[in-house]
Design a protein that fits this description.
single chain, about 350 residues, alpha/beta, Udp-n-acetylmuramoylalanyl-d-glutamate--2,6- Diaminopimelate Ligase, Chain: A, domain 1, UDP N-Acetylglucosamine Acyltransferase, domain 1, 2 domains, 12-stranded mixed sheet, 10-stranded parallel sheet, flat
Length: about 350
């Protein structure tokens, strides 16, 4: 594809030779003379002078460089679009594999692909254009909308409801039992039935080996546009807001509530029954045990305001030096105190002789 054609498809303004042939997309340090790359973060802007790429996706106000540029408001999003142009994932033809086990009461939408050894239980309803790959299991009563895409070994438990354009990566579990137990009169843990389903909105992606627990009562809810990363744990009865990101190895304890457009970075943790407002950001490995108002950025465990945390970390790194200085000051103070005490004793002795 010529660079000018790619610029048209991305609705970008081309600066440079539009006849260059483009064959793919790569990172700025790896891209070759037939590949495009991008700069969205200013810290990498200096690399454009070293790149061998055919062209660079940049913002409209980016300085002119010798390499051709495609200029648009959101270079990173354009980079993703370009990837979609040059890379096409495997396509699966409509049809049902003979080894699939499908209950006669299940309804499968038009143009759907049901792969080998899939198990679809009673009362399941799948919309049109579903892709269900090998060894996926859909328990009784599952409902999924149009363009449902379940990769191998994903599982959706009984009664869960998923919207349109939901993608489950390999091993994702939607609707597993919540971690609910109560002690009986003899002090033994007894399982609490987890009766409520998981409700997943539209355009939700749930990545590999993430687990979203069903609710004890009510429902666990994942709103439209939310993205759940690998190895995330969403506890029973929790709610994740619209367009919120929950990154790898993060965990929400039961009945946590996270607002819209929030970002929970890797390995963050939220205690049960806590509410995080809209656009809250928890930086990596933060631990929250209290409600957080909208718009706050928190760090650390226990988490507190990010700027204060940055200052605290800077001080923490200097603690050995500070300790040495304090120790030296204490020793100096002891010497001074000892000298003063000796002077006082000498003065008293002199007065006594007089």
């Amino acid at each position: 594809m010529r660079l000018a054609e790619l610029a048209d498809r991305l609705n970008a303004t081309l600066h440079g030779d539009g006849t260059i042939e483009v064959t793919g997309v790569r990172g700025i340090e790896e891209a070759g003379p037939t590949e495009i790359t991008f700069v969205a973060n200013p810290k990498y802007a200096g690399l454009v002078h070293k790149t061998k790429a055919a062209a660079v996706l940049v913002s409209p106000d980016f300085p002119e460089i010798s390499t051709p540029t495609l200029r648009l408001a959101n270079p990173y999003h354009a980079f993703a679009q370009a990837l979609g142009i040059f890379y096409q994932p495997p396509a699966y033809a409509p049809g049902i594999h003979p080894t699939a086990v499908i209950d006669p009461t299940a309804r499968i939408g038009a143009n759907s692909h049901i792969g080998a050894y899939v198990v679809i239980g009673p009362g399941v309803q799948l919309g049109d254009n579903a892709t269900v790959l090998p060894h996926v299991v859909l328990y009784p009563g599952v409902v999924a909308g149009d363009h449902f895409y379940a990769h191998a070994h994903a599982v959706v438990r009984e009664g869960c409801i998923l919207g349109d354009h939901v993608t489950l990566e390999n091993g994702a579990i939607v609707g597993s039992d919540g971690f609910g137990f109560a002690k009986d009169n003899q002090g033994n843990w007894q399982k609490i039935p987890q009766s409520g389903p998981v409700l997943v909105g539209h355009h939700v992606d749930i990545q590999a080996n993430a687990c979203i627990d069903r609710a004890t009562v009510g429902a666990t809810e994942i709103a439209d546009g939310a993205k759940i990363d690998n190895l995330v744990q969403i506890g029973h009865g929790s709610k994740v807001g619209k367009n919120t990101l929950v990154c790898a190895q993060a965990g929400l304890a039961g009945s946590s509530v996270v607002g819209a457009n929030a970002i929970l970075a890797g390995q963050t943790g939220v205690a049960g029954h806590c509410t995080l407002g809209d656009e809250v950001i928890l930086t990596a490995q933060s631990g929250v045990s209290h409600d957080v108002p909208s718009g706050k950025m928190l760090s650390g465990s226990p988490a507190f305001e990010n700027r204060s945390w940055l200052r605290a970390v800077a001080v923490f790194q200097r603690l050995p030096e500070i300790f040495r200085r304090i120790h030296q000051l204490e020793k100096a103070a002891q010497v001074i105190a000892g000298t003063d005490a000796s002077s006082d004793s000498s003065a008293h002795a002199k007065e006594g002789r007089n």
